[in-house]
Amino acid sequence: MVLPSVKRLSNRTTLTQDASLQETAKPMKDFNELGDTDISTSNQNSKEAELEASQSTLDDALEQLMFNMVAGHLAARKQDITEDYIEQRAVVLDDIHMAFGNFEKEASAAHEAQLKRLQDLLAQKANIEAAMAELLVSLQKTYV
Questions:
Q1: Is there a contact between 112 and 120 (Cβ–Cβ < 8 Å)?
Q2: Is 47 within the bounds of a domain?
Q3: Is residue 9 part of a domain?
Q4: 34-63 core/surface letters (b: 16 or more CB in 10 A; e: else)
């Protein structure tokens, strides 16, 4: 479907043939020659400038206040995070030391049990070897 074309009227103003650009331009007054209306305008402009200056001063003060508040908030948050980190680090280190301490105790108990078993086996071996030596001596007496 094709939309119908609409001719739009331009909102731009053009110079007519009767008036040239130079004729439509208003002559500028010399800045040194201030009239009565110019003085009141100048006073009004200076008041506006003072208002803008005070407004910019207020804006700067408000901006500084906001900056200080945000910086304080961030510093407090950083301090809280640092304190939490230190606490958690201490807890984790204690847990690690306790885990290794428990492991050391269990490993030590297992090691002691293994050593006792080894000593028992060595004692059995010595008894078996002694019995074998006695049997060997009795066999030698029998055959000699």
A1: no
A2: yes
A3: no
A4: eeeeeeeeeeeeeeeeeeeeeeeeeeeeee
* Residue 144 pLDDT class (50, 70, 90 cuts): confident
Specify if 77 maps to a domain.
yes
The rounded percent of the chain whose pLDDT value lies above 70 is 70
Q: Is residue 107 part of a domain?
A: yes
The secondary element (H helix, E strand) that includes residue 99 is helix 36-143
Calculate ∠ Cα 130-133-139, nearest 5°.
145
Cα–Cα dist 133/139, whole Å? 10
pLDDT at 86 over 60: yes
Q: How many domains does the chain have?
A: 1
